C-alpha cells in the first residue's frame, strides 16, 4: 500500500467503509469527502459537483414519478460505488486504475486548473467509463435487460433532461459561488459544455452497455480498454489551460 498523507489516509477510510445501500448513504459518503478535502485538491470539485447533482436529481422526479424507481435507485447506488472504488484504486496505486480516472488523479494537485475543469474531468471519467459497467451490473443484479422502449430507459432519459438543466447551474456555482474562493471565469462553463455533452455521453454509455452484453472474454476486454483510453484522452483535454 502507498505511504499516504493524513488526508488521503482518511479519504481511503471513507471510501472503503461500509458499501452504500441507499442514496442517503451515497450522499453521506460524498459529504464526508467534501468536508475532508481542501480547496486546492481537484478531486474536491468533482465530488462537489457529483454531490450537488445527486441531491438535486434525487429531489426532482418527473411529473407522475419514476416508472421504475427501484431500478433507478439501484443504478445510482451501484454507479456511485464505481467512483468510490476509483478513489481507492488511485490511493492504493492499483495498476488497474482506469486511464480515464488517472487523468483526474494525476492532476488533482496541479495549479492553474479551474474547479470546473476538474469537475467535468471527473464527470467524463464516471459517465464514459463507469456508467456502462454500472448499467450491466444493475441489470444483472435485478435480472433485467431493458430495451429502448422500457420504463427503465424512460427514467434514464428523464435523468438526462434533469442533468442538462442542473449541470450548467452547478458548474456556474463552482466557478463563482464558493464562499471564500476566488471567482473564476464563468464563461468557460459554456466552452467546456460545448466539448463535453452530458446527454450524448449518457446515451453512448447506454449503447455501449448493450454492445458489451454481446461480447465475452478478450473481445470485451479490448472494447473496454479502447473506451478507457479514449475517455482518458478526453479527460486530459478537459484539463488543458483555457483562455
Write the layout of secondary structure elements.
Layout: H1 6-15, H2 23-36, H3 42-58, H4 69-91, H5 99-105, H6 115-142, H7 151-176, H8 187-195, H9 198-213, H10 217-238
Helix pairs in contact: 1-2, 1-4, 2-3, 3-6, 3-7, 4-6, 5-6, 5-10, 6-9, 6-10, 7-9
What does this structure look like?
There is one protein chain. The chain has 243 residues and is mainly α. It is 71% helix and 0% strand. It has helices spanning 6-15, 23-36, 42-58, 69-91, 99-105, 115-142, 151-176, 187-195, 198-213, 217-238.
**Series of secondary-structure elements, N-terminal to C-terminal:** HHHHHHHHHH
List unreliable stretches of 5+ residues.
none
**Class from secondary-structure proportions:** mainly alpha
Shape: globular
Query: What number is the mean pLDDT?
Result: 91
Q: Evaluate the radius of gyration.
A: 17 Å
Strand content: under 5%
Helix content: over 70%
Main beta-sheet annotation: none
Query: How many H/I helical runs?
Result: 10
Give the strand tally: 0
Task: Give me some keywords for this one.
globular, 243 residues, mainly alpha
Brief overview, please?
The chain has 10 helices and no strands. By secondary structure, the protein is an all-alpha fold. The chain is globular, with a radius of gyration of 17 Å.
Amino acid at each position: 500500500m502507498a505511504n499516504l498523507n493524513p488526508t488521503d489516509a482518511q479519504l481511503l477510510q471513507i471510501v472503503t467503509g461500509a458499501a452504500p445501500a441507499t442514496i442517503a448513504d451515497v450522499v453521506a459518503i460524498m459529504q464526508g469527502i467534501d468536508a475532508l478535502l481542501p480547496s486546492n485538491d481537484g478531486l474536491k470539485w468533482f465530488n462537489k459537483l457529483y454531490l450537488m447533482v445527486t441531491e438535486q436529481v434525487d429531489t426532482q422526479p418527473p411529473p407522475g414519478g419514476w416508472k421504475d424507481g427501484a431500478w433507478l435507485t439501484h443504478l445510482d447506488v451501484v454507479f456511485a460505488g464505481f467512483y468510490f472504488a476509483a478513489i481507492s484504486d488511485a490511493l492504493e496505486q492499483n495498476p488497474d486504475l482506469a486511464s480515464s480516472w488517472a487523468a483526474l488523479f494525476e492532476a488533482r494537485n496541479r495549479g492553474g486548473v479551474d474547479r470546473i475543469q476538474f469537475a467535468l474531468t471527473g464527470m467524463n471519467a464516471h459517465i464514459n467509463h463507469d456508467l456502462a459497467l454500472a448499467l450491466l451490473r444493475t441489470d444483472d443484479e435485478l435480472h433485467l435487460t431493458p430495451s429502448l422502449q422500457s420504463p427503465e430507459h424512460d427514467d434514464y432519459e428523464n435523468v438526462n433532461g434533469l442533468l442538462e438543466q442542473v449541470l450548467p447551474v452547478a458548474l456556474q456555482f463552482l466557478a463563482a459561488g464558493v464562499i471564500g474562493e476566488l471567482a473564476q471565469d464563468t464563461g468557460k462553463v459554456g466552452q467546456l459544455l460545448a466539448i463535453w455533452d452530458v446527454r450524448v455521453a449518457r446515451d453512448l454509455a447506454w449503447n455501449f452497455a448493450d454492445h458489451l452484453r454481446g461480447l465475452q472474454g478478450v473481445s470485451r476486454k479490448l472494447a473496454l480498454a479502447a473506451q478507457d483510453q479514449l475517455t482518458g484522452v478526453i479527460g486530459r483535454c478537459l484539463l488543458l489551460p483555457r483562455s
